[in-house]
What does this fold into?
Amino acid sequence: LLFFTFFSIHLFGYDADSNGIVKPTSPPHLVNDFAKLLTEEQITTLENDLVAYNDSTSTQICIVTIDALNGMPIADYALQVGRNWGIGQKGKNNGVLLLISKNDREVDIEVGYGLEAHLTDYGCHAIIQNSIVPNFKEGKYYEGISSAVYSIKYFIAEYPAASNYSYSTPSYQPSFFEKYGYLF
It folds into this structure.
């Protein structure tokens, strides 16, 4: 276990816990490019955008790129990152994690419970297939990530949760027979 932690720090250049899950940076950032897919300018642009979005909506979108999953399924890895890092506000569960594993060529979007009505599994799959995959195939990592962030924000804004809708109880309308009585 100690060997794995030492090996992952020196091989990948980032710190991981005993389960191989990457640890957050200190100070924390919303864009964590451990796999070095982005330029510093691109990281800054994304970070500024996500911080402004967090400040205006309280919804936290976090991007994490890593080199490898070390045999762990990406959904499990992403879930652990989301929980360990505390993405989103406590009590609101309004965090979104975009996890990219460079060497495994895998991408996952995990959504906090508070946003699942806005951003469904189907929506996440569509974002990955339409925004990320085509760009990544061409080596356009920033474009894929930026497009995915835009799409995530769009889904959250355009598909409000069912609890946000106001339901009005229709006024009682008597049936024909109640109104006019039985004809026989």
Remarks:
- Strands lie at 31-33, 60-66, 95-101, 106-111.
